[in-house]
Amino acid sequence: MESENQTGVIEFFLLGLSEDPELQPILFGLFLLMYLVTVSGNLLIILAIVSDSRLHTPMYFFLSNLSFTDICFSTTTVPKMLINLQKQSKAISYTGCITQLSFVLLFAGMENFLLAAMAYDRYVAICYPLHYTAIMKVHLCFVIILLSLYISIVDALLHGLMILQLSFCTLLEIPHFFCELYQVIKLACSDTLINNILIYAMSSTLGGVSLVGIIFSYFKIISSILRMPSSGGRHKAFSTCGSHLSVVSLFYGTAFGVYISSAFKESYKKTSVASLMYTVLPPMLNPFIYSLRNKDMKKALRKFI
Questions:
Q1: Which residues of 257-280 are buried (b: 16+ CB within 10 A; e: fewer)?
Q2: Residue 261 pLDDT > 90, yes or no?
Q3: Which candidate, 99, 50, 59, places its Cα nearest to that of 75?
């Protein structure tokens, strides 16, 4: 294929979920509804936490940050897809694609770290209840958020800058509804060995550390719960962790499914649907999981509404 250098690339083409013109209005309406539910649901969670002084605790501080991250995560991908569906266009500019890709990495990284922070919070609350307020101080919570943001920004910038060094082929079709890192790198005509090494190194390190931390926290939590004498205490402890476990399973389960499936040759439609599972569904479902399974959140939402 004829190669172009990166400054000559005008635009990429997002193939989306379907090329059928009759399905475009249906997809537009469906994703508009999902986006509105995502934004309104997560915004309600944030406002309920801010307005209720009983929820001004580390657990709900991390939850409000998770909801804000979910809003940003969806806003990075879905509005561009809605615009393309409305205009019957698949194009995204080179600058727009790299920018979108970087923000997707940033907010995915933040979600990854926030889920680990929430697991640590539950670990301290259940395993060291008498020392909880001494350990989970306000300044520690802010340090965790700032450190997570810093690492996520560095990760996103690193991948973005490495992609700027690539030159691309003339066929610039991305089998997704957004600019996904691995798919963009596959389009390059230049050597992508360093980019691929960077993907696996950063994903394994950042994602692996968070996941190991979550698994370790819940191993200790379950061990501590099983040692509780009363069944009522065990049920209460499990109920405080149920929502978080559901969100963790949804996020990591769908993300691993996408990257495992990407190792096999599949149609672009299957790849797009798989990506939809971890970019759109978790942010939309998280507010429902926390509001339906958490009595304190239910009370706060009723009070706010």
A1: ebbeebeeeeebeebbebbbbbbb
A2: no
A3: 99
Q: Give the residue from 65, 67, 83, 112 showing the smallest Cα distance to 210.
A: 112
Radius of gyration of the chain from its Cα atoms, rounded to whole angstroms: 21
Give the tokens for residue 254.
């769908």
Residues 218 and 229: their CA atoms lie apart, in Å, by 19
Asked if 109 contacts 204 with a C-beta cutoff of 8 angstroms, the reply is no
- 248-253 average pLDDT score: 81
Q: How many Å apart are CA 106 and CA 157, to the nearest integer?
A: 9
Question: Alpha carbon 42 to chain centroid distance?
Answer: 13
> How does residue 6 score in pLDDT terms, banded at 50, 70 and 90?
very low
- Cα maximum dimension of the chain: 71
CA 63 – CA 51 distance, rounded (Å): 14
Helix (H, G, I), strand (E, B) or coil at 3: strand
Q: Determine the pLDDT at residue 138.
A: 92
Residue 10 pLDDT exceeds 90: no
DSSP string computed for 77-144: HHHHHHHHHHHT--EEEHHHHHHHHHHHHHHHHHHHHHHHHHHHHHHHHHH-GGGHHHHS-HHHHHHH
Q: Give the count of beta carbons closer than 10 Å to the beta carbon of residue 115.
A: 21
68 compared with 241, residue with greater pLDDT: 68
Sign of the alpha-carbon torsion through 203, 119, 136, 49: positive
Classify residue 188 as left (phi > 0), alpha (psi -120 to 50) or beta. Answer: beta
Report yes or no: 225 and 126 within 8 Å, Cβ to Cβ.
yes
- Any idea how long the chain is? 305
* Residues linked to residue 14 through DSSP beta bridges, in sequence order: 174
Q: Cα(245)–Cα(268) distance, rounded to whole angstroms?
A: 31
